[in-house]
Amino acid sequence: MIPRAFAASVVLLAPAVAHAGTTPLYKPAPDWVASAPPIDASDLDDSSPIFLRYDQQQRVEDGRVWTYSDNAIRIANGQMLAQAGTLTLPWQPDGGDLIIHGVEIIRGDQHIDLLAKGAKFTVLRREEALEQLQLNGILTATLQAEGLRVGDVLHVTASTTRKDPALQGNAQTLMPLMSLPMRARFGRAILSWPEGLDLRWKSYRDIDAQPVTKNGYRTLEIKLPLAKPDDMPADAPKRFQPLSLLEASTFDSWAQVSAVMAPLYATKGTIAPGSPLAAEVARIKAASSDPKTRAAMALRLVQDKVRYLFNGMDGGNYDPQSPSDTWRLRYGDCKAKTLLLLALLHELDIESQPVLASTELGDLVPERLPSAAAFNHVLVRAKVGGETLWLDGTKSGDRLVDIADTPDFGTVLPVQASGAALQKIDMRYPAQPDLKVDVTLDERAGLDFPALYDVAITFRGPTAELVSTAWSQGDDEQKRQLVNRSVGAAVGDSLLATKSLERPEGDAGTVILHAKGLAATGWEKQNDRYRMSLDHAVNEIDFDPDRAKQAWRKIPVQLKAPGGQVVRTRIELPAEAKGVTLEGDSKLPETLAGYRLKRDVNVSDGVLTIEDSVLSRGGEIAPDQFADVRAAVALAKSRMLEAVAPADYPAPWEMIRSGRKDGRFKPILDTYAKVIADNPDDASHYAARAHFLGAIYDWQGAIADLDHAIDLEPTSDRYLWRAGLLHTIGADDKALADAEAARKLDPGSTGVLAQLATLYAETGDPQKGLDLVSERIALGGDDRQPLMIVKSDLLSREGKAKEAIATIDTALDEHPGRPVLFNQRCWIKGTMNVELASALKDCTKSIELDDQPSAALDSRAMVYFRMGRMDDALADLNAALDIAPGRPASMFMRGIIHERMGDKKAAASDLAAARAAQPTIDKDYARYGIKP
């Protein structure tokens, strides 16, 4: 069986008997069809509905469903003309007939009868769903609507009939009900049946209509469109989602459905002695006497040796092909695979039976009318040693270890000759995760630098097959993209150096993706300590259901489908961080928000290891549990596990100095070299290494890599970046040339303009920079504020303190309350040693307003320095460096202050670090009259 698809004009459900026509019939509509009002196309405009008529009528009689469709659509534009100009009417000939009643074009008061002009439908004898692994037997009748124009109305009436012998005289049908915001000038749905037929019907929407009896038939008529369905929260179970359809069935109970389906799955005599299948049974028996092991072997045979292909031909929507045919053809759908698996299990003396399931609407089944149409899947329920096993031949990768896992199908129907009641599947947590991630992060170079990663990702089940297939069929770039997506989820931003796929031998049912490369550091400095999140469990869980609307208060939360992941991370720490400690929960609650959790963590000999397991079994969380679950999740998230580096972990500049001295950066640089060598034409890889080289103060190396990146792919950002590096080493003439090149590529960039103006000042032409900035400021726009900051800086370089301060005063009038402007005014006053009392107020205001006030703290330290308040200046600089470790300006000033306070050793350390990070810093501060 397959999920049902409902078209607006023709509804095709369970196919039926053979011997119906394989070519369309041309006949008038049957007498029972209720007539519709005439179609008026004289007053159409752009506000008219697309559907002028949407008339769907069904009659159920003698086990047959006759579906009549009468649709008239307005051809509103060229796109609709292209789509509607080719009429397509699908039907399943072994289930019944396609009957064409009429095809016409209505143009104003003209009615152009295409059939009267000799037009005929052509039948396409192609499997229209073969790409979806379906041989459904559906044929498609097509007709080119010759002469159709934009503004015309295309009017088509047609019928399909169907009768399925597998239902043993019963009938079932589903009819979609148009709902707003779809519109129709005339719309209705009619269901009719003989007065003596015990037909049950149900709508999942509120409708006013009730059946009436006339001429021996009961008729239910529903006016369309219905009101717009009520909104539902996205995490609501499917049974709460509004279904706009009408369902009807002649089945009187689920037990009858079960009994009617039972003959289709009889296995007696389906495996003949001496046949190939009998040999497989003998092989399994010889391999093991354990029933559970035998069941796992039989399941693996069906999953691995028979590919999936739906076969709905020759009455096959419910009737499975024989086990011998399935084994010979080596393909089959869920029906065929289930019957094959049942035959094997029965030969192995394992108690088992088929069960019907709905893969998408399983939780709605108990509320539906009894019918086979409630299901779109069939699998096997087996009993082994008192344990219930749910065995699905259409899956892949199931093994003995996880054979007891449960599918999230909600409520199912066992199939047996005596009939059966519905059964709800009792969900269990899966025995294995879908995904295992094993990561080693080599952080020995330091917590501020990229980590060398070595990742092994183990995929199981269907995902393993998808990954294996993608790997086999993909080229090198596609493999790279696959690995980057998978690794990125495990380690974040990364560069790939090596990749491979391992297919373990034996019974694993897995594939393992291996990758090595560089990952961005996960450490951040907070509260004067380096910290790294270690959580791969609680962070994956969110529980904040939206039940604000009164109508939603009693709706449960649907949990994720069964599955989960295990992430094991091993972090090799630098010698300076071996005193790392843990904060947060080293142990997790056994369950949280429906998930089963487990955590193991260990720190030993400079290696931190953590393993997090998160498993879901599906199911729901009831509304009366929401408050407790929400509180538990919030508590867990407030205590997420972190690694905390020791308080005496060296500052970045100290790690850079020692790293360059002892060669600990070599493995990182070797990996960058491998990445570049593998793809030397990728500019981004040179840029990535340039970023690292700049971070460790190898300015010439960074510039050389940017040379390569710009040669391969010049961008404004890269020119600007190289200009900044050249300025850092004092090569301002070259920097100016790069800034001008950047402006040619991006003349509207505020950042480019700002750097260009500054470089004009640095190379002896400050007025040119001022003119450039002033001209842009005069144009107005969002970039006025940042450019006024640049202008004030240029004025201060010229010693024009009043003009510089006035420029920021104007900016604050335009943008009051901006912390960056208060900081800039404070900085100008402090560096120019004017208005220090008000400067202090400006900086304090900026610090109060800014979430990350490192710059303002640095500026206030300058003011305190000018005022001779060295202790206060030192305190602010320490705070600034806690927020922004390695900031050269703050280190330089702290060195100056240490020197003034007599701490020559601390001064020398800070000044050396500042000079390493910004070689021209002495010259920059000499401009303010500040020298060591």
TrEMBL record:
It comes from the Bacteria. InterPro entries: DUF3857, TPR_rpt, Ycf3. The keyword Signal applies. Keywords: Repeat, Signal, TPR repeat. Residues 1-20 form the signal peptide. TPR repeats lie at residues 854-887. This is DUF3857 domain-containing protein. It comes from Stakelama flava.
